[in-house]
Amino acid sequence: MAEDAASSSRRRMESIRRHLLPRPPLILSLNPLSAPEAEPSPVIIGGMVLDIHAKPSVPPHPGTTVPGMVKYISGGVARNIAECMAKLGTQPLMISVVGNDMAGDFLLKYWRSAGLCTDGILQVHDVTTPVVSNVFDGNGELIAGVASVQAVENFLTPSWIYQFRRHISNAPLLMLDANLSPQSLQAACKIAYESGVPVLFEPVSVVKSSRIAPIAEHITCTSPNEIELVAMANALSTPGKYNFVKLDQCNNNMEAVDCLFEMLSPAMFFLLEKGIKLLLVTLGSNGVFICCKERVNIVKDQQKCNMTTFSSQLLEKLEGCFPPSMPVNLSGEGSSRTCVFHLPATSASVISLTGAGDCLIGGVLSSLCGGLNIMQSVAVGIATAKASVESEANIPAKFSAASIADEARRTLLSAKQIWCQ
Asked: I need a surface site. Which of 136, 172, 199, 404 has the fewest CB within 10 A?
């Protein structure tokens, strides 16, 4: 009886202790891929986010609700890029974090249903899964949004990233999104640098794009829009030194491209001076600037990348397709010449613009891993972005290799060399 009473007392004390003391996060999915023989695959580190999309069916009015459509969609810059790459035939390893809540379960269920690996995804108790709530106008343009992504900074830590050191070291490339904390960005870059793995930095937003400052020397490629580009240059220089003013109107697209180059080239050239080897500046409906040294390698040990059925079809259709009158080689050993090219956007029937930029980068990275060169890969990215804006989801349910290749071919044949000296 005395023993039973003591045991009962201990159980009560343990119960009280659990309620009074803070509970450490419980790791529910801690299974890093550790086999040294694992196939080299791109590594993507960043946010998995539940996007809540609200689109009114009538013009919105401040201070009141209006009828419309609200949807839950799997989102997050890094997650979108990883899913896009997977649907283009390139299986990346995604390293991220979600909470043990409804949103986290939704994201993981979708990820597993797509046949994607969850070994790099940390799920923890008492944490709110990153959520972004967006309100759009009738044309699919973002009116306002609120992002709650603190879990990425708080739990996607250097110690979690270091558990995947072998995979990062063996990867053909590493992509980081700027939702990561500065410490985690530096840890991932250190692993990649020690193994010669190229790093792509996705700025995410104007505010977070400045996180490139401490790691710029380790960044191989970055993919800002116009205002993110300027913010990054200012973060590495004197604040306010570089600026960008949106164009009100231009007589034609080429005039707009010339004006944009004149405004943005000082920031682009400055970032190249800081060690970044390739800039993909997204210009919305005006296309993309490619700014780099004449010869640059973006993928490590490209011969180790798996050639998929999808990438084989793209390579077959795009092989030998180069912009006319462009005597520039973007592969091979380095060169001192700096070159800028413009690839135009393709016309699309816009349903939603969310996810288009992520699909562009997913298309670029998947194509690079599949053996395409930089120009071809960016053209594929533009074609992939078109498929995204014509879809309700951030990432379309599937891509057509034939359609992507045809669109990419048209883009390549319309590409222009803007600068090279």
From this structure: 136
